[in-house]
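Hi D.,

Good news: the full-assembly prediction came through. Inputs first.
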Amino acid sequence: MKTSEEIKAIESQIWNILKFVIDPEVEVNIVDMGLIYRVEYDGDKTVHIEMTLSTPACPIGDAIVLNVQEAIKNKFPDFEVDVNLVFDPPWSPDMVSEEGKVLLGL
Amino acid sequence: MQGLATDNAPSPGVVVPHFIFASISFFVVVVLMLLSASSFTGYFFEPHLLAITHAAVLGFGTMIIFGALYQLIPVIFETALYSEKLAKVTFWTFGIAVVMMVYTFWNNQFSTLLVYSASLTFIALMMFLFNIVASTRRATKKTFLSNFITFATYWLGLTALIALIIALNYKFNFLNQSHLLYLKMHAHMGMAGWFLLLVMGAAATLIPMFLVSHQMNENKLKYAFYFVNAGLFLLESDWLFLHGSVMLPVWGLMIGAGIFFFLSYVRESYKKRLRKNLDVGMKHTMIAVLFMILPVFLGIIASISGLNFDQKIYWRIIMLYGFSIIFFFITSIILGQTYKTIPFIIWLVKYKSFVGKTKTPLPKDLYSEKIADIQLYSYIASIPFLLGGILAGSEITFNIGAALLLITAILYNMNVFKIVFHKSRIETKL
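Then the structure:
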């Protein structure tokens, strides 16, 4: 079992990995878009991700979710990635980070 | 994992052929247009014009909407399409029917072939209607937007029914009113009932999604829906029972009010958009939305009986009325939304299994942005020539516009085929 510092360090690494997952429509990474609600590492081999999509109707939603799983597994091949897709609270533009706003040209 | 639109997405084999047929149809439409410039400066009920109109609204517009709708059904209704097999049979039946119908009109075979091509079209459209209604019945989610799709499909069925009655009348001559009256009913059901409602319903989902705009006032869409349906119902009833009363402009204004509420919804989405830079797809869409105003204005002007236009001027207003709906509203929205649908469908097929494992191209990398840009510019450049050509009755001006539109059609086809036949850039490396 990992210490709480080690858990935090891995969670932080995962947040960084997710910064490379792009929403193909807006071409901004899903972290700065505010689509990732929660990253939780259990200290063993499971990572829980709680995320949303900018719209439930997103035509490539499952590709984004798959991308999240594969991107994490690339770095941590032994990990199990559990993605929980939620629409409550619904995503809103207020969730976009300052960096995301720059990328969106706001 | 729940709630994903792609869980119920149809196989690409159902959707993609519609896009191929439609883009070729658009090219054929513009070639036929170049061959018949004189038809666009005269009377509107003319064989070549009817051939071009039906090639455009059925072969191009309706065909691509069928494909897009099969893809959109899971998004809007959160259910899979009722039958993919039926969708494939519908595609072939409808494709043959459209070719037959265009041939019939072009060669002036009203009393012989028309009844067969109209019957085949009717059968194809009924199969489509059945598939959509059966799909929506088992929908797990019904929003107000789904009413647009359902009602548009019913109006399409009625449009096909009136067309069949007109075609049968050519052979058996049983109607007691002029066929032009039924033609008006048929055309308006098709334009306002099928295309307008369908586009409104689809665009109300897609425009805020692609512009990334939130907290929209959905009431505007409700008003749009009720005004268009009520206006159209009263317009059709007026023609059927009163054969065209002085109230026609009022029904036109009601449809116009519906369009106003829809425009207001799009404007709100545009103002609240998070994505500031519009791509080619959205620029085409915005042109189409702006061009919804022109036919409303022309339609109301043409329906005011007291204005007593010179016959030539009246014909030109009517010509421009129909032309602007088909070639500025429907065409522009399709040219744009093609770039927002087919690249995603093909991208999912080619790259879904590679995402996260290796670097994949983006959906927009599947087509040439340069070609898409020139397509947009040639399209915009064609508009004043086509408008001016019809208004001034000048064949040369119209032909310049048609030539520019031909460039648009060629470039559009190049990109559609580039997307459809895209070869994965990853498979060879693995």
